[in-house]
Amino acid sequence: MTAAQVGTVVGALRGVRLATADRRLLAIDGPVDVLLEGGRIADIAPTGALRLPGEVLDGDGAWLVPGLWDHHVHTVQWALAAQREDLAGTASAAEAAARMSDALVLGDGRRVGTGFRDVRWQDRPGLALLDARTGETPTYLINADVHSVWMNSAAFRREGFPAPADGVLREEDAFEISRRLNAADPAVADVAVRAAAERAASRGVVGLVDFDMAWNAEAWTRRLAAGFDSHRVEFAVYPHDLERAIAEGLTTGETLPGDRAGLVRMGPLKIISDGSLGTRTAASSQAYADDPHNHGVLAVPPAELQELLLRATAAGIGIALHAIGDVAVTAALDAFTTTGATGTIEHAQLVRHADLARFARLGVAASVQPQHALDDRDAADALWASQTSIAYPLASLHRAGAILRFGSDAPVAPLDPWQAIAAAVFRSDDEREPWHPEERLDIQTALAASAHGGTGGDAGLLPGAVADLAIVGADPATADACTLSEMAVLATLVAGRVTHRG
Fold it and tell me: In whole angstroms, what is the distance from residue 325 CA to residue 481 CA?
């Protein structure tokens, strides 16, 4: 490939192969040249047929896909995860506590670990266990699902929370701790976000939906002023900031004032209506197998949920409604039905058969994270063994006509759309057979779900389409699971501007 540097605005791509179904519109199956103008695709023709203007990026026969989006990211928490102790591989509470005894003490005097999944542990977290290992240094272990936080006594004293015997805070209390931990010095957080964004661009990412729990309008205005330009952003607000968003006139799809490049837009209102599988708080019709009286929790009563949807809709703000258990998914669809709101159900990890068609009928997109199905397969088999609803449906939703949007929920899963695509297509990331292979998707659907707006979006490789693009080293249609999940990304472009060179 030619040596166009990051930041270069490219006039044409030479000698690339289209990796999407859009290639069926071409008269040839060989390499093509793609002309770019004004941030959009201007023309596509067989290589050598057109004069190529401006800076030319030579594709050398590599494969072209629409730029990829992650439709569910907790941006600051994802960015700061690089500074925290990685507990993803821990096999027990004892091991996690031992790891934290040697973890780096951050500049604010805390130790923070992240990524553990206690649902896989044979032992349980305990306050005394963590205190014995970590002493008087405030220590925090954030569950991979972010719905619980294990803390030592020093951390409870610092945060002003009473300490339960197991040392674990769940749901809203856990979210409050995460908000405090993520409220880093803006200069520190912004450096971390910029570095994380560059890593995302190296995986072909051209945009993300930011579900950070802070006031994101201010944060992204600050980052833009400092020169941020790695990818596009649609940022959410939460119910505690809804009235502020309305007062400031923010509406979904509106570009931030002063953003001349049009990179950052207001996104949806994010509402968390239930918990998670790992914390055993997702609201489910059948009890958890290891706790026969536990059906999870509905965090937002139906009347309150409807009021939030009506208030946001009247102000021109779309909805992103977290619902994991089947009871929560049904309640979410009921709220969309009653209010006429538009938007997404985030996660939809357990869905009743009767609810599948309601997504399409209501125009509500299913914003899903394919890697979660593989990370949670053992827990789902164990804890949801008695459920009659469909666990982690992808193909079932697609067949029912639902719009699919892929994401990672980073830092819950790595922000890597190729990992998500591979998880959706192969439904396995180890030596085991595919988990519920009937829910596998074809590669073209998975690619579409990973572009802006998902399978209902307008991303494509056609004249007039936005020139948010990625050039990759293999044909996704013929790649095996390993090649697909580790796809080599040779270049990423946002509106024709290079944001990554491999």
Answer: 29
